[in-house]
UniProtKB/TrEMBL annotation:
Gene name of the encoded protein: yabP
The protein, known as: Sporulation protein YabP
Database matches in InterPro entries: Spore_YabP, Spore_YabP/YqfC, YabP_sf
Gene Ontology process terms (BP): sporulation resulting in formation of a cellular spore
NCBIfam families registered for this protein in UniProt: spore_yabP (TIGR02892)
Length: 103
């Protein structure tokens, strides 16, 4: 999926693909609006969504389903937290998180 979307004040937010996160019993996540899977292992997933980067942490995580065309990802395992990494707000925190991921 090679589509990237610009965020701006020109009313483009209406044209963004839908982004939803559905958690079922803290064991399954269904996420739409995924543009790219940056990295993943059994403890952490980093996804680029149409609403920003989303980090998912847990244990025994595995990708149950990936549909690149529709931008849908399903993840199974025990989910501890979901965090959106917002560069405007996070600044140093975001940089620290990324540096830990890519060591």
């Amino acid at each position: 999926m090679n589509q990237y979307y610009e965020y701006g004040s020109s009313g483009q937010k209406d044209s963004l693909p839908g982004h939803d996160v559905k958690m079922i019993g803290r064991k399954t996540l269904e996420i739409t609006g995924v543009k790219h899977v940056e990295s993943f292992d059994n403890e952490e997933f980093l996804l680029e969504t149409s609403m920003g980067f989303l980090a998912i942490r847990g244990s025994n995580l595995k990708m149950k389903n990936l549909n690149v065309e529709s931008g849908m990802v399903a993840i199974e395992g025990k989910i501890f937290d979901l965090v959106y990494l917002d560069q405007q707000q996070g600044g140093e925190k975001t940089k620290g998180f990324f540096s830990k991921l890519f060591k």
